[in-house]
Amino acid sequence: MKEILRKFLLLFKKHSFKNLSIFFKLSFTFFLIILFVILLSFADSQYYKADKSKVTLSIVSQMNLQAISEIDSYIENITTLTKTPLYYDNNNTRVLENLKLSNKNHTFFSIQKDLDYIIEQIFSLKKELHSVVVYNLIGNNDSNSKNGSILRFYDPRRMWWFKKSVSDFGKVVIIPTFPLSDISNINNYPSKVKYVFSAARALVRYDDSSVVGIILINTSINTIGNITKKLSVYPGQRILLVNNKGYTIYDTVEKNISKIINANDFNTLLDSNYISKQANVNGVDSLITRQNSTNTDWHLINIIPTTALNSSINRMNQRTYTVTFIFVIFACIFIIIMAKQIVNPIKHLSNVMKIVEKGDFDIKASIDGDDEIGHLAKTFNIMTGKIKELINEVYVDKIKQKDLELQRLQTQINPHFLYNTL
Prior knowledge:
This protein has eleven helices and ten strands. A hairpin with a 4-residue loop joins strand 4 and strand 5 (about 210-220). By secondary structure, it is of the alpha+beta class. The strands form two sheets. Strands 2-1-5-4-3 form a five-stranded antiparallel sheet. Strands 7-6-10-9-8 form a five-stranded antiparallel sheet, with helices on both faces. About 55% of the residues lie in helices and about 15% in strands. Helix 2 (about 20-80) packs antiparallel against helix 10 (about 310-355) and helix 10 packs parallel to helix 11. The radius of gyration is 49 Å and the shape is rod-shaped.
């Protein structure tokens, strides 16, 4: 490339385009100007696209952070609510002691009223909860739900979260999303809610350091959906909430909720601790942004198709290129017209000069206009007129001179002629 440029400069320096026509020189100059405008427009659009993408990425990242912070805050709230029976027991109601006794006598009657009150208090503090259940260690429970009764013959002891809550000894256990059918005893469940996520905690009686029961607070996955709804601003956008194992807690594609993401998606979405990256997801080039939860192993992943992300920029670029193309067309037409208005009068004047060169001083350069070429043509016409006058004057003087010479000869010849005749 450097060698080609060097040869071009040498050629330009050697010839300096002296032998090229004025039309070519004008057209080439205007072409360079138009090319510069096109390149400047393209560079500006690319800069704007990069800057817009950077700003968009910053906004998306901030929205992701805000959303995961709201989710973390909500989980903290329901985590705190799981302590309600412990606070209630401090008021000398002996709930935990009676709950411990229920593990032996298999009855909830003695504490039913107290548990109902505790559950109602929890609902009053968090109205969007789906259900609250208090279990003893043999699986008996007292529950309340906004959407129907909880399955009373449901044995939770076989569930991992029940066992983990007991072994964690009072530490809260966050349960990822699971289908509501697992806890409902109604065949035709009337609610639109299909999935819940939960917080469970072992109720520990610290007098004897014994676990006497489990409290389970269930929240509709719609709660997360309402939080992430603010993030959905692009067509084809997908928002996921997954844990480290690839379990889908929430997905805007509802059929994927409570499922493990496939290996390809796992490698793409959870392979490294990135904040944002470009990747192909299900055959679509996308911008992927991720925000990690500070309280859980959950990750909020925001997938935006590149075409949707850049749609406004692409529309603007399309309009810019269209306007530039129209400008180039009109500029070319204007260049041709202007070049001809400059070159054609010069050609005409050149042709007139060739005729005058042959001796015809009667021809005139017929160029209309008051520009430099028009003034040049008028000056040329004046010059040819004066040349013609000078020629005529010289010609007349020469004739007169010849007449005088003839007259002198006649005066000299006449006496001798008469003498010789005599």
